[in-house]
Recover the amino acids of this structure.
């Protein structure tokens, strides 16, 4: 599963899977990654999933972005410090690269004042 997640991360990073028609497939890929990393103690697998989730944040679909954000936020509570560190770094850099905050925060940039 780790090579699969690494391959998906590379494809998402190169915008090869950026087609809107692939939303359903990306939701299935997200579900596979969540299933593979749920209750796992393999740090390498968790780190590979973090890469996939962080690149899914930039996809223009609300459902996929929300699921990827929830997955990354859950990994911030992981028992392993390395997983928490990498999840925080990837989340931070992904949020910095976002052009449209309305996918993450429903009220857009004005919502930052409320937080």
């Amino acid at each position: 599963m780790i090579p699969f997640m690494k391959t998906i991360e590379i494809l998402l990073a190169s915008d090869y899977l950026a087609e809107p028609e692939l939303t359903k497939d990306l939701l299935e890929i997200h579900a596979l990654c969540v299933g593979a990393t749920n209750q796992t103690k393999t740090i390498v697998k968790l780190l590979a999933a973090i890469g996939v989730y962080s690149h899914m944040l930039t996809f223009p679909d609300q459902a996929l972005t929300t699921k990827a954000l929830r997955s990354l936020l859950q990994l911030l509570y992981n028992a392993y410090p390395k997983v928490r560190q990498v999840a925080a770094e990837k989340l931070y850099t992904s949020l910095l690269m976002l052009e449209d905050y309305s996918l993450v925060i429903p009220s857009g940039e004005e919502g930052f004042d409320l937080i």
